Amino acid sequence: MKSFTISQFNYDEFTIFVYPHVYKPSDDTYMLANVLKKCKKVDVAIEFGTGCGLLSLIASKIAKVVIAYETNVYAFRNALKNIKLNQLQNKIFVFLDEGINCPQAELIFMNPPYLSDLPLGYQDVEAQNWYGGPDGVRIFLRILNLISRKLTKNGKLLFVASSTQNKPILHKALRMYGFSWEIAVSKRYFYETIEIYKCTKNERTKSDICRL
Fold first, then answer.
1. Once rounded to an integer, what is the mean pLDDT over residues 33-53?
2. Could you tell me the CATH number of the domain that includes residue 55?
3. 3-class DSSP assignment, residue 210
4. Partners of 8 in the β-ladder
5. Is 36 part of any domain?
6. In a domain, 175, yes or no
7. E-strand spans in 35-162?
8. What is the CA radius of gyration of the chain?
9. For 72-117, how does the pLDDT look when each residue is reduced to its tens digit (9 = 90+)?
């Protein structure tokens, strides 16, 4: 059911507000958060699709600078509020942008939309929070090329995936863009298994590039 009220909660030392039309952190968010906390320290970390900004706040513990991108104006404003509220506006920088001109980073993370069917009642701006395309990976693949160019060699990519997605397409794309991967953690729910992918950026071969 849709909520048009502002919710508030605490996570670790952070106070978080979630605005209407913004994805409210759920099990998949917290799974990614736990993996993120265990990453080694880096100079620059980037988040695509920051939502309310919780994951970028967590990343500030391991990164000197966090750059977050968001295309949903509601989420953009929400993230700005939470970053200012938690007094990290000098360390986390949020842009209302797709991130095409983002800098190089040693760590990139995201919780992309991955459902292939929209929940009833969710349309328009709400769909951005859930819908990953008919195969569940379309939105993620759209940005994977950019990620592969902006991630430093041996850099890490963390993202959320679901057993409902088309995994052969996902894995083929990861290989073609020069990534190896492992499943950092997985958890079975009633209708799906949620997984956190931890990918390492390797060199792409000439044959890989020709197939893109």
1. 97
2. 3.40.50.150
3. helix
4. 17
5. yes
6. yes
7. 42-48, 63-70, 92-96, 105-110, 151-162
8. 16
9. 999 999 999 999 999 999 999 999 999 999 999 999 999 987 555 6
In a domain, 196, yes or no: yes
| Whole-structure pTM value | 0.88
Distance CA 71, CA 131 (A): 14
Q: Is 168 exposed, middle or buried (0-12, 13-18, 19+ CB in 10 A)?
A: exposed
HSE value, Cβ hemisphere, 13 Å, CA-based, for 79: 31
162 Cβ partners below 8 Å, 6+ apart?
Answer: 114, 115, 136, 192, 193, 194, 195
Sheet holding 92-96, edge to edge: 92-96, 63-70, 42-48, 105-110, 151-162, 193-201, 179-188
Residue 1 within a domain: no
Q: How many domains does the chain have?
A: 1
Q: Which string of b and e fits 54-86 if b means at least 16 CB within 10 Å?
A: bbbbbbbebbebbbbbbebebbbebbbbbbeeb
